[in-house]
Amino acid sequence: MQRHQEHGHHGGHHQHHSRHHGDDNEHSHSHSGEDMLEVEEAFARIMECFRELEPEEKPVLECLGQVLAEDVSSPLSLPPMANSAMDGYALLHQDIQGASAAGPANLEVIGRVAAGEVSTQTVTPGTAIRIMTGAPVPQGADTVVPFEETDEIARRNSGDTLDRIAIMADLPLSANVRPAGEDVRKGDPVLEAGTVVRSSEVAVLASLGMTHARVIRRPIVGILSTGDELVSEGDPLGPGQIYDSNSSGVAASVLAAGGVPRLLGIARDNLDDLHRKLEEGAGSDMLITSAGVSKGDYDMVKDVLTQRGDMNFWSVRMRPAKPLAFGHLDYSGGKPIPLIGLPGNPVSAMVAFEMFGRPAIHTMLGRGAQARPSVEGVLTGPIYNTDGRRVYARVEVERRDGEYFANPTGPQGSNILTSMSRANGLAVCPADEKSKAAGDRVRIIMLNWNEEVAL
Ligand code: AMP
Ligand code: MG
Q1: What is the pLDDT of residue 286?
Q2: pLDDT averaged over the chain?
Q3: Which end of the chain is more exposed for a tag (fewer CB within 10 A), N or C?
């Protein structure tokens, strides 16, 4: 855990190196003396290259999941006027003092008012106005008594015209009256810049009458798969070929993280195609490639990335997802675009995205690179660590008897996507521990917080 790379810790993408740091194969076993980055170091180097993006103004509903770029103060009071919290009778508190079922207060009903209306009448001593929930409290009235505390139903049942009403309870002054400005007063700060817009914030903004809000815009993320063996979904699979799961998988992860995926397709392992497909990423805020960054490759991807900008090829002390590229690609007429080169194996790609891509997107969104929630839980099966890397094992977390249990979801090979699909968390075996056994307590990074797990 303590071993550090020989070169400086700083400068991130300004370094050209790491192309010959030995073993880049995810499944090999010995690492003596080679340069490996701790997960935290890779994370720090990547994150220092990302900033919050600029604001945009858009319809409130479309802001869901984005971050407010400015404070919002209220152009009005909420509620705008004193109104009733119940269906009942608006009256003067002084008229119902001491009222009870045995000795009700009898009042003359001089009118009625529904939500959306404004009564022109004034409640005077000895009178009441029938009022509906949300209707403005009429002039003169200071208290609302709900139907349940009156003889209204009895009167109705006997065919009464409801010109009079008996109040059978002495409620406190102002009972069931929502005062103007109870929630928000005109000019009050309501939402702060930096707030994530959830459905509650959408509702708050709507309650202020706002149609649009200023939020940090979503990053556009160009996604490129590389490999001669890849075929797009929908096309027939030839001999030796596999479907390109990374394009869609990464795009889905980008969407889930709040970014806007821009699919650049599949680049074949040749210079021309790689250059051409990368060119189509111009204007993105970030690029994510997959494959071609480990040692076994023909190095075409590495060559092209290196030619086009400042690129690092790292080995990160983690399993899965050891090989990782990070740097900036130059575009003529534009500023360099940060690029994360994920490993090709589908689970490695997902886990590396989880560790580095998602926080980068969150940083651009103004949400900060917050970690996922994690819990401590009991393993129900072993995790093996064969070569001194931190292992992120796919587990299904469940809660039983007030305790979290982490069930390994099956084969942990970096190509086994279905064990990723069955997982809702990643259980951690530290780099310096050879294994974790069933019954051991581990830290679990929660990828999904199902209500069932959280309860
Ligand atoms: P590479 O890094 O190019 O050696 O790829 C590592 C492994 O990931 C190989 O088995 C590739 O076939 C596989 N792989 C690469 N890209 C993809 C992709 N887009 N979808 C599914 N598997 C992939
Ligand atoms: Mg390849």
Answers
A1: 98
A2: 92
A3: C
Mean pLDDT of all residues in 401-424: 97
pLDDT tens figures, 85-141: 999 999 999 999 999 999 999 999 999 999 999 999 999 999 999 999 999 999 999
Residue 220 CA to ligand 2 centre (angstroms): 25
pLDDT of 331 strictly over 90: yes
Q: What class is the 4-53+218-364 domain? A: alpha beta
**Alpha-carbon distance 260 to 262, whole Å?**
6
**Pocket probe mutation, ligand 1, options 290, 299, 302, 314, max atoms within 8 Å of Cβ:** 290
Tell me the C-alpha distance between 189 and 183, whole Å: 12
pTM of this prediction? Answer: 0.89
Query: How would residue 11 be classed by pLDDT, with cut points 50, 70 and 90?
Result: very low
Beta bridge partners of 376: 443
Residues, the chain: 455
Please give the C-alpha separations between residue 409 and each of 338, 381, 395, 431, in angstroms, as whole numbers.
34, 9, 5, 21
> Residue 34: pLDDT band by 50, 70, 90 thresholds?
low
pLDDT score for 418: 98
Return the pLDDT at 316: 98
244 lines ligand 1 (CB under 6 A): yes
CA of 345 to the centre of ligand 2 (A): 9
| CA distances to 228, 269, 290, 316, 429 from 238, in Å | 12, 17, 21, 34, 39
DSSP 139: B
Q: Which fold has domain 374-454?
A: Beta-clip (2.40.340)
Give the pLDDT confidence of 267-315 residue by residue, as tens digits. 999 999 999 999 999 999 999 999 999 887 777 899 999 999 999 999 9
- Contact between 307 and 328 under an 8 Å Cβ cutoff? The reply is no
Q: What is the largest CA-CA distance in the chain?
A: 96
> Could you tell me the residue ranges of all domains in the chain?
4-53+218-364, 57-78+183-216, 83-178, 374-454
Helix (H, G, I), strand (E, B) or coil at 305: helix
As given in the structure block, the two tokens for residue 150 are: 């009156």
Can you give the pLDDT at residue 450?
A: 85
- Residue 289 near ligand 1, beta carbon < 6 Å: no
Does domain 83-178 fall under CATH 2.170.190.11? My reply is: yes
Distance 272 CA to ligand 1 centre (A): 20
CA angle (60 as vertex; 57, 61 as ends), nearest 5: 130
Helices (H), 266-322: 271-279, 300-308
CATH code that applies to domain 57-78+183-216: 3.90.105.10
CB 289 within 8 A of CB 342: yes
